[in-house]
């Protein structure tokens, strides 16, 4: 079956879309539990009670299914951080979002890590299309931050030389590193320290009376 | 066989130690390529030409072997960053070490990610002993940084309220996040931004005429 004939999520009947979503959700759970290499299509079929022909009706191969898992994880991540992630266009909004992610991690003690970041180690070297999907997912996540930071720059809260895209990427690195260390140490402390550093980094671009304090790199 | 009877690396003949090291090295390579779940003891036996009884002579189970893989990765990481990692007790030394890790990542374009960090996503939720081994490995790596930063504090280059252990953990989070994003994006840029942020964060504790500039958190 060519990719043209395979129905995308948007071209399915309600029942088909539900089956497809159920397969992706089960695969996501298995991947979180067993890793990508440890999750076979047979596992997914067993978990969802679907046949091989049903599975291949929706997904060309395991790689295509894993890409959908990545998309699902992104959707979960974005949803879990709302409304704060959509309101990072002020100092108070940024602080609220940071408090939100730290509080979530405090609640889990870092178990599971980032639903996206924790897939990178296993996926990035095994599937270039999955790595690409991860990169796009991070970029979409970061776009909330860069949009908010651009608004702050336009409002005069950040200086004109602040680069919202690079700042957003830097914040994402701090977040991912903090979550990875939190997952390893079973403590929210590394994330808390990392996001505080990231906020301090953004504050170095604060415009106004304090601008003179900005240290040169 | 009880753990008491199983020979540790220090109690082996030269030949035994070589065989054990060869098994660990092969397992490390397989894990990097196939992930932990995707690497079976059968794979390790096939790659090293060892029998099941030989393998179990050295390692109680897969978990014990994976812990040795983590230790080996740590040794590689530390060795690859010398001599700079051992000389992070001055501003110039810190900058040299940061330049070193960024240059290494520029050379690989992030492929493979951090040999330790890239294992966290798959290992942390599947083996508590492996997660613990990873946490200890990061702590050992960080100890180079915290020792250097403590020297800088004792020398009066950092203010008395600088906490070397927390600063080292924060730098490690920046490094891990930068490497994870670099691996995903196939670019050293995220790591470069992250370590610059980390250096800036340490500089906020610089002692001397500039101390008055330190922003409050």
UniProtKB/TrEMBL annotation, chains A, B:
Gene3D superfamilies, alphabetized: Tetracycline Repressor, domain 2
Transmembrane intervals: none
Known DNA-binding region: 40-59
Keyword DNA-binding among record annotations: yes
Superkingdom, taxonomy of origin: Bacteria
SUPFAM superfamilies registered for this protein in UniProt: Homeodomain-like, Tetracyclin repressor-like, C-terminal domain
Pfam families on file: TetR_C_13, TetR_N
Domain HTH tetR-type: 17-77
One Gene Ontology term of the molecular function aspect: DNA binding
Keywords, in A-Z order: DNA-binding, Transcription, Transcription regulation
Xref: InterPro entries: Homeodomain-like_sf (IPR009057), HTH_TetR (IPR001647), Tet_transcr_reg_TetR-rel_C_sf (IPR036271), TetR_C (IPR011075)
Signal peptide: none
Protein name per the record: Transcriptional regulator
Species in which this protein is naturally found: Mycobacterium terramassiliense
């Amino acid at each position: 079956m060519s990719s043209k004939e395979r129905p995308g999520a948007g071209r399915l009947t309600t029942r088909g879309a539900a089956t497809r979503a159920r397969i992706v959700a089960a695969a996501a759970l298995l991947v979180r539990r067993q890793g990508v290499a440890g999750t076979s299509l047979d596992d997914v079929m067993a978990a969802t009670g679907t046949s091989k022909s049903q599975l291949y009706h929706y997904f060309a191969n395991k790689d295509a299914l894993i890409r959908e898992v990545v998309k699902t994880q992104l959707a979960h991540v974005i949803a879990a951080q709302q409304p704060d992630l959509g309101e990072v266009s002020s100092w108070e909004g940024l602080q609220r979002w940071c408090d939100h992610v730290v509080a979530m991690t405090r609640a889990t003690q870092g178990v599971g890590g980032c639903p996206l970041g924790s897939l990178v180690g296993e996926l990035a070297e095994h599937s270039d299309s999955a790595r690409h999907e991860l990169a796009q997912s991070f970029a979409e996540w970061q776009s909330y931050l860069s949009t908010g930071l651009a608004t702050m720059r336009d409002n005069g809260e950040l200086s004109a030389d602040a680069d919202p895209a690079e700042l957003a990427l830097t914040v994402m690195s701090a977040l991912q590193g903090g979550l990875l260390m939190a997952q390893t140490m079973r403590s929210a402390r590394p994330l808390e320290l990392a996001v505080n550093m990231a906020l301090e980094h953004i504050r170095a671009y604060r415009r106004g009376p304090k601008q003179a304090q900005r240290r040169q790199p």
